[in-house]
């Protein structure tokens, strides 16, 4: 697909989750807690969690957007909507381009087959062909440093070893639209340094990035724009420093600015 055709668009997109077994004393009006989406009731008086409300998002090739917001704000739901896992309950969502959703590093891995076979399966799960993955196998094997373990079934790996393999595969693909949920877990610091370099390169060759994270450093490294999601709505859309500053305060904004300066990326706002 030509770069100019790669797009993500949502128009007043809403996602509700009906909860049929909710134990609620009284839900006469919508309840807003500090964490989580808005709890309300639909026309048939079923309790619903309004995870996303009236999302209008328009992304094109080259956009790198971070999502910030409290627990349960709706970040993961938005990523799933953009990946086609959820349909909007109301409004619409149109995604043009090959999407690679990376939520859970372990998804698409089979414990009973070898590391090598898992490289192929996981890559195909992310939209690559078998041939493309075969061409990348050596390089992934080298990055993972798993040596002869790659011949062994995945169930014999430790958690960190699995993450190494999954990270190797995920960072080897060539997505048009990369949807990334932070969830990058148990690897040692030395390996993480290596992984970050590859992650940066992955983002650079991706058409569009949407990345949900609680790490300001990571957001500053990978994105140049941020959306603050608050109780299912876009509360703010702007430069990372500006949005993180509004969401978490001046200290966090200063932290973002430091990372941007270190990376030689100039901040879009000088607030
Ligand atoms: N499958 C589901 N069924 C019912 N409610 C759900 C479901 N998935 C998410 N929710 C609700 O939707 C809201 C948004 O959740 P979501 O996982 O998108 O938040 P988040 O911003 O990713 O949070 P966190 O930072 O904690 O990961 C929450 O109130 C959550 O309880």
Automatic annotation (TrEMBL):
PANTHER family for this protein: TEICHOIC ACIDS EXPORT ATP-BINDING PROTEIN TAGH (PTHR46743)
InterPro entries registered for this protein in UniProt: AAA+_ATPase (IPR003593), ABC_transporter-like_ATP-bd (IPR003439), ABC_transpr_TagH-like (IPR015860), Bact_Polysacc_Export_ATP-bd (IPR050683), P-loop_NTPase (IPR027417)
SMART domains assigned to the protein according to its UniProt record, in alphabetical order: AAA (SM00382)
Pfam family, one: ABC_tran
Annotated protein name in UniProt: ABC transporter ATP-binding protein
Organism domain of life: Bacteria
UniProt keyword list: ATP-binding, Nucleotide-binding, Transport
Similarity remark: Belongs to the ABC transporter superfamily.
One of the record's GO molecular function terms: ATP binding
Domain ABC transporter: 22-256
